[in-house]
Please model this.
Amino acid sequence: MSFDETLSTIVRRHEELSSLMSAGGLTGESFKKLSTEYAELTPVVEAFQALERARAERADLAPLLSDPDMKAMAQEDILRLDALIPELEQALRISLIPKDEADSKNVILEIRAGTGGDEAALFVADLFGMYRGYAARKGWKLNVVEASESVLGGYKEIIAEVSGKDVFARFKFESGVHRVQRVPKTEAGGRIHTSAATVAVLPEAEEVDIQIDTKDLRIDTYRSQGAGGQHVNTTDSAVRIVHIPTGVVVEMQEERSQHKNRDKAMKVLRTRLYDLKRQQLHDARAQDRKSQVGSGDRSERIRTYNFPQSRVTDHRINLTLYKLDEVMNGAALDEIIDGLVTEHQAEALAALNN
Model:
């Protein structure tokens, strides 16, 4: 189907949906399904209509070039429209990129220390601070689900839930290995060391996304432990859930209540299984693995934070910013994510055109 045929089909379907919803008589579920489809098509139709208006206005101005009194004004408007129309054409193409159904979801953010020992754990705390600052600037809500502190500070692992509008659409580009280069905070001085942390961003699953059979679960309880292995309470409030078919394990001890820990663990388990399902689907569809932008491959080194040079480099798009402090407090993180979104859109458009 050609580009114009695709647009014509979308416009007709949009009009059909509008008529169906206006006619009434639909059940709640049917109306919800149609209104969701209508909302998904509306940005495409609006982008197409804006382009058509600009093209019509440009055509109407052409005859005025032969009118001495109107020529100057017409030329000015034509120059404006000649610059605007390509922008509207690009916006229309972008609106046709298939949407990731998970983009509107909240996320479970998991950050774990990698190579580097105590310094890696401190870097996990730095990354968590970066995402906490970024979430605050976006007006998103961030809640810690589970945290495993290291003896010298920082975190061996920290898991948080981030909720708000289109959280996964922005955060999904953060999955991967983050590397830090600096004189370790655990040393008074010396040479620069390299440490790493792994970030996993999972779209939060709802019960309708993943159905879990209780027969597939093994649930154990044990006493919560703090940094260094010491027991922090006297009851078996910590929970470990194993999903037997996949081998996925979730442990939770953040709360003093076993019931609360179990609820949190089930939420994380459901989300990890949903992510596993998405990854399997992605692997089945993806034949070309040259680009990792937006793939969510958490084994890939995606970014380096060089403290002596106040430099941050995202290796996927070869973008370097010399504003480390602004990135680490979340203020400049959008500059990197915007570049990744643009690259992702360019690759998606190339795929549509092939």
User: Anything to note?
Assistant: Confidence is low (pLDDT under 50) at residues 287-296.
